[in-house]
Amino acid sequence: MFTKNRKKLIKSLHQKKYRDAHGLFIVEGEKMTRELISLNSIDLGATITDLYCISSLQESFPEAEIISSEDMTSITAFKTSPGILAVAEQPSLPN
Fold first, then answer.
1. 29: which of 51, 82, 94, 95 fits an S-S bond (Cβ 3.0–4.6 Å)?
2. Count of domains in the chain?
3. Cβ of 85: how many Cβ atoms within 10 Å?
4. Short-list 92, 94, 72, CA closest to 84
């Protein structure tokens, strides 16, 4: 569910210190999100916690939660919103 707290968390993940503190990262755009989903299916440790898209991409990403264009614009790092955004856990690297 896309709440104000979730929105605030996602916006904070644009800074490295918050990505490290929460153990999460953001992936934006159709191509990168598809790659993350395919990597997630072979279990490389980057588990997707949230997947958001605008209504025009609903057919391409049926598992994503639909949010408004305004909300997508407010959480993206790009000037022009890509329409899809995923939040995933950072994989733990072997020592």
1. 82
2. 1
3. 26
4. 72
Predicted TM-score (pTM) of the model is: 0.88
Query: In whole angstroms, how large is the CA radius of gyration of the chain?
Result: 13
Which of these, 29, 2, 24, lies nearest to 13 by C-alpha position?
24
Task: Name residue 51's amino acid.
Answer: L
Q: What is the number of alpha carbons within 13 Å of residue 28 lying toward its C-beta?
A: 17
Residue 68 belongs to domain spanning: 4-89
Q: Report the C-alpha gap between 95 and 83 in whole angstroms.
A: 36
Strands 48-53 and 65-66: parallel
